[in-house]
């Protein structure tokens, strides 16, 4: 038995292999024990705290740090053996791949978690957090590219040429995809500047609708007649956007005209009648004035506020004011003006014109 364990295979004794295998088995058991008991204990402790950052640290340790530590320890144990240069290079390359893989995943996860925690700390709505996925995907891709370049550098490749090639290729791609990049940067502007959000009703030029989705290249609107409108982000950013969802209240300017036969006493009463009517329907009265003498009407202008942006409430309030004014004018004998023209004919003058016509005949 002693001769068997002292027998040499590939410059190492059987005892050396058994010792390394034993340590590797022990490390595997320790990792399982650590995950089953220590990690669960830490998760139980952090779940009771208000701070969510410690929960993310425990999750990151379970997903990335412990598995990487397991691979690294096994690599160190294998390296205690006498290995050929070729095997050492393969193991070193394998460790580099594993290191870059777990490092990039850890950075992406940590960055993603920090951004989400910050968004929730600012009480951002879920729609905004969903929009964040487009930006995070782009950043994660860039981190993976950087990690791949670092891996090639660790493996002994000349990354200077690769970086230069990526630079030239990036310029060519940028020139070929100007519209796509324009929409992408416009998406970033929309995300950080927040001119509108999902659920907002906006008007852009002759287009209006409710925002359903904000994508990396386009945004989707649902028009009032049910059509889905797909608009490039670049066009949205360049245009003037009317966001009615963020209107705190509506200011209404209206004009009413009465006939010239209205008495001066009735004209003095009109501003107070309008004020009483506006306040009676729950709107906020601002002013009412005799504005002008028109061709066929005496015009009054009045202004009031509706303390909600809801369009249905706006229409109901305006309707109630108009109906109430109509009833009060009817009771007071005040007539609404309408386009008309009165012609006055004088009999004596008409007879003179008739006689002149008969003499000429």
Helix content: 55-70%
Low-confidence stretches: 356-361
> Which structural class is indicated by helix and strand composition?
alpha+beta
Largest sheet: 5 strands, antiparallel
Tally the beta strands: 10
What's the mean pLDDT score? 81
Order of helices and strands: HEEHHHHHHEEEEHEEHEEHH
Strand content: 15-25%
Cα separation of the termini: 155 Å
What is the gyration radius calculated from CA atoms?
40 Å
Q: Count the helices. How many?
A: 11
Oligomer: single chain
Broad shape: elongated
Q: Strand order, biggest sheet?
A: 6-5-4-3-7
Describe the structure.
The strands form 3 sheets. The chain has a 5-stranded antiparallel sheet with strand order 6-5-4-3-7. It has 3 domains: 2-178, no CATH class; 187-246, SH3 type barrels; 250-332, 2-Layer Sandwich (Alpha-Beta Plaits), CATH 3.30.70.100. The chain has helices spanning 2-5, 14-46, 53-79, 85-121, 126-154, 159-176, 178-193, 233-238, 264-280, 311-332, 347-360; strands spanning 8-9, 12-13, 201-204, 207-214, 218-222, 228-232, 241-243, 250-258, 284-293, 298-306. It is built from 11 helices and 10 strands. With 361 residues, it is of the alpha+beta class. The longest helix has 37 residues, at 85-121. Helix 2 runs antiparallel to helix 3 and helix 3 (53-79) runs antiparallel to helix 4.
